[in-house]
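Narrative of accomplishments. A recurring question from our advisory board has been how the design workflow behaves on a single, concrete structure rather than in aggregate. To address it, we present the structure tokens for one chain from the evaluation set, followed by the sequence designed for it. No filtering or post-editing was applied between the two.
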């Protein structure tokens, strides 16, 4: 069985796409790589949840002996939630959420580092130490594992960084 470190070391750079200021990993390529690494991997979409007029989708991927769940709002290319999304927009978000749930196992997770940072460069901390702290905090929020039905932060466990 592959370790997190082995999976995280895979370079996904040539399989990403840029739209605006966002980077996306092709969900089809992510699924292909996942099934090559773990042919028994499965995924499941949870029921979407409405937040006023917007929608959040969820996907759980079981691979390498654990289940990781990601969530993603139905959003436009500017990372803004779409009010009253149509079926195509929901489907797009579900596929992006699948790629994100696969990333929680390590494949391309680094492209999500800092996705919750402020968009204005003036708001981004200028010291390397502060940027590293924020990226680690973002990764800590993004990486979860499920143990006894409770969500537990697992950044240090899976990355080997303390």
């Amino acid at each position: 069985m592959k370790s997190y470190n082995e999976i995280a070391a895979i370079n996904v750079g040539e399989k990403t796409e840029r739209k605006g200021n966002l980077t996306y990993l092709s969900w089809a390529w992510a699924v292909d790589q996942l099934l090559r690494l773990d042919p028994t991997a499965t995924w499941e979409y949870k029921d979407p949840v409405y937040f006023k007029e917007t929608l959040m989708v969820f996907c759980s991927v079981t691979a390498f002996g654990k289940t990781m769940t990601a969530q993603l709002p139905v959003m436009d290319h500017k990372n803004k939630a779409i009010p009253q999304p149509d079926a195509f927009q929901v489907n797009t978000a579900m596929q992006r959420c699948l790629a994100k749930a696969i990333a929680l196992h390590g494949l391309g997770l680094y492209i999500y580092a800092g996705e919750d940072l402020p968009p204005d460069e003036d708001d981004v901390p200028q010291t390397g130490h502060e940027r590293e702290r924020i990226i680690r905090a973002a990764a800590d929020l993004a990486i979860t594992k499920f143990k006894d039905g409770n969500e537990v932060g697992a950044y240090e466990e899976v990355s080997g960084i303390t």
